[in-house]
Specification:
With 445 residues, this protein is α/β, with parallel strands linked by helices. The chain has 16 helices and eleven strands. The longest helix has 23 residues. InterPro entries: Cbl-dep_enz_cat (IPR016176), MeMalonylCoA_mutase_a/b_cat (IPR006099).
Length: 445
């Protein structure tokens, strides 16, 4: 109290984050949380191969497939230079034999995403796998598909989500290490949601999926074992570590509530760096953001890490920098030598406790109004997340939230023109935190 010279302690030394959680200047053992001990050092099963480092995650390269031959060259080059996983974004029919020529997918993780028919995508991929003689146990990865998130972008009926999910689960059943369904928390993050909103609405949709698929003969055990977490690490370093760790805790606790037996280490978490945090003005600052976010992802317990390019391009230099962030954190910062460096942290476990409490309370509120779909149809979810987004964007616009390379130390060179997403009232589309500022300060036409 002497150091702050009589000023109010709460006003001077504490801060309140966007979810209303008060962050104290220091934490002690009294702030630790009982019940989280089982989630420490539980990011993945212990390695079976002797001599390899204890902490494992896949360095995933992202490829937007337009030309199979070009993408094949890009994939092979990236695999020769440090990645051990591929994330393929596909729109339309694909010649898999050309795209994956000379790619040993038995030894890497493969993630698929499409804005088209997910069933057609999987069936064509499955046909190629069978023709190539790849055994079901040799396929690792998953499909980043969340029907509820698709309903936030395109008109989609709830029953269609259940039918597609049930069909995927039936078709992928023979592939034990390939998960066909994801909970795409990342979409809520990209739309501007807070951490609690992101987790609450993501898990609310998953609860609705579990309940809906039971009517289609899909047991909770089948769903939990075939679903994974897809989430993004944002700019609040410690907050994002706590968010990702909380996702593992809630997923595991939901499994327990549904009578599903699984270890916390069996929860699969795919983490991408955030598009929401990036600036288009001084793109080099995004390298720092990507590095911080990748560290948060690793400390939070990612099993696969996809670092985006800092300048939104597919240029050789940009993709090299993206894949090398994960490599440097592993090979030079030695983040693979300790499984869970944040385990037992007074601050982080206190923050996780707060997040868990707020997410639980929010889930109860969502269930009271009828669940995720009712929150979607009534517009409550969209309005709530838009309000959080607007608050963040206005803070950047007014300079209250400093963003290096945008509203602080902006470059003098020509600034790219940007357009605001044309979002209908029922939609939630991806934005960026600096987008409104950039739009209002771009070069005159």
């Amino acid at each position: 109290m002497q150091d702050i010279r009589g000023k109010d302690f709460e006003a001077t030394l504490t801060t309140i984050n966007p979810d209303g959680i008060r962050i104290q200047p220091c934490y002690t053992e009294e702030d630790t949380v009982s019940g989280l001990e089982g989630y420490r050092n539980a990011f993945h099963p212990n390695p079976e191969i002797p001599g390899i480092p204890p902490r494992i995650w896949a360095n995933v390269g992202t490829f937007e497939v337009e030309d199979e031959k070009v993408s094949n060259r890009e994939i092979l080059h990236a695999l020769m230079n440090g990645i051990d996983g591929i994330f393929l974004k596909i729109d339309g029919p694909i010649d898999w034999a050309t795209l994956l020529k000379d790619v040993g997918i038995q030894y890497i993780k493969v993630y698929l995403e499409t804005e088209g028919s997910v069933l057609e995508l999987w069936e064509s991929f499955k046909s190629w796998i069978q023709a190539a003689g790849i055994k079901p146990a040799e396929l690792h990865g998953g499909i980043i598909w969340d029907g509820f998130v698709q309903a936030l972008q395109y008109p989609l009926e709830k029953e269609d989500i259940y039918v597609n999910a049930a069909s995927l689960l039936a078709s992928v059943k023979a592939y034990p290490d390939f998960r066909p369904l994801a909970i795409r928390f990342s979409h809520y993050h990209q739309a501007g949601a807070t951490a609690v909103q992101e987790l609450a609405y993501g898990f609310a949709s998953f609860i609705e999926l579990v309940d809906g698929l039971e009517k289609h003969g899909i047991s909770p055990a089948d769903l939990f074992s075939n679903c994974f977490v897809c989430i993004e690490a944002g700019g609040d370093f410690f907050g994002e570590i706590a968010k990702i760790k909380s996702a593992r805790v809630i997923f595991h606790q939901l499994a327990t509530l549904y009578g599903v037996s699984m270890e916390p280490a069996m929860v699969e978490i795919f983490v991408g760096t955030s598009n929401w945090t990036k600036s288009t003005w001084d793109v080099n600052t995004n390298l720092l953001r990507n590095t911080s976010e990748a560290m948060a992802a690793i400390f939070g317990g990612c099993n696969a890490l996809a670092v985006g390019t800092h300048d939104f391009s597919k240029a050789d230099f940009s993709t090299r920098m993206a894949r090398n962030i994960s490599n440097i954190l592993k090979e030079e910062s030695f983040l693979d030598k300790v499984v869970d460096p944040a385990a037992g942290s007074y601050y982080l476990e206190a923050l996780i406790r707060e997040i868990l409490g707020k997410v639980k309370s929010k889930l109860i509120d969502i269930e009271k109004i009828g669940g995720w779909w009712q929150a979607f149809e009534s517009g409550q979810m969209q309005n709530e997340i838009r309000a959080a987004r607007g608050k963040s964007m206005v803070a950047v616009l007014e300079g209250k939230s400093p963003k290096i390379g945008s509203n602080k130390f902006a470059p003098n060179e020509s600034r790219p023109n940007v357009e605001l997403p044309q979002e209908q009232v029922w939609q939630l589309l991806p934005w960026r935190e600096t987008l409104l500022f950039e739009h209002q300060n771009q070069n005159p036409a």
